[in-house]
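PROTOCOL LOG
Step 1. Enter all chains and additional molecules of the complex.
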Amino acid sequence: MQGQELTPTVTDTQPADARAREDEWLAVRCQLGERQAFDELIERWGEPIWRYVRRLTGSNDAADDVAQNVWLRVLRGIHKLRDGSRLRAWLFGIARRTLMDRLREQYAAPDVRAIDDVDLPAVDTTEDMETDLTAVERELARLPVVEREVLTLFYLRELSLDEVADVLGVPVGTVKSRLFRARRILRREVERQQNHTNVSPHGTR
Amino acid sequence: MTTTHNASRPSTSAASLHRLVDAELSMPSRLGYVGLLLAALTMTGVVGTLWATEPALPMRTHVAFGLMVAIGSSWIVFALWVLTHRRILFARHNIVAGRMAVTFTSVFLLGSLLMGYATGRSEAYKAAAVGLLMLGLAVVVLVRAHREFARLAARRDALERELGRSRR
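Step 2. Run joint prediction.
Step 3. Record the structure below.
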């Protein structure tokens, strides 16, 4: 994957303004108490939230647990959301806070970088490892939490720079510098892994 | 996003999330707590009024009234906490709750007035005064609930027009 950049998902091609209106429409219907709107909210965001949490926890069970708590908080808090167009940033902000609360409970010293190495997902084998995408996925899982979450939010979860800054509670400039650092680490690791695979007797093609 | 990782597939089933929504949006549960709130408010209001206005009560009656007001206040706090933290009232729920409050307080007011008219006891009229105050508050709550619902519904309709969606 020489020099290859992660690309935004297909739904990112939708204009940001239209996305914001879609989000607000969903949020307003939830605030009205329309049952179908809650089903649509979960249908639309259930998987992205789970995958975001899964990337940061590195464990399916932990992701299940956190995702349930995220949705509890969402259902009990969406009536207070003032600007429905901020729905996606608000959702991922809740997911992040829920995750941090869990980490604080689990570890007396909340050093999230140290936690990073504890819950690394199992490395998949055989065919999956042969694709660049899988290599990126795997190396993404190995990144420190700070870099992993900024890459996940920006490239994989369709959030704009402003929205990522909103979720993380940091200035846009900080998001940019984290993205720069994360991309650099990721590219270096993927290239190193590919070089290693090419010289390995089992990895030679 | 497409991924080939089995480990990356969500294992939180849609069914479990829908069960969560069912439990969280349960209407009978909400209305039960609204009923509890109204009953506790009425009981506490009437007992509190009697306690404050009856002259020369013996000490044991003071203690009994004090206990009843404390118990009623606890139920009010509990019901309010549940309705603001656990069984959230969304816009349409607020309208139902407001209508319940108006109905409940109207019946209480009428009952107190009829009792006062039939027996001539001043306590009934004091209770009616409490009922009138609560009816006024209930009407305010209902009007505000209707306004908030109308505001949100107007925004929803405007967004549907912009997005070219039709009501299902």
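Step 4. Note key features.
Residues 10-199 of chain A form a domain with the Rna Polymerase Sigma Factor; Chain: A fold (CATH 1.10.1740.10).
Chain A touches chain B through 43 residues (CB under 8 Å).
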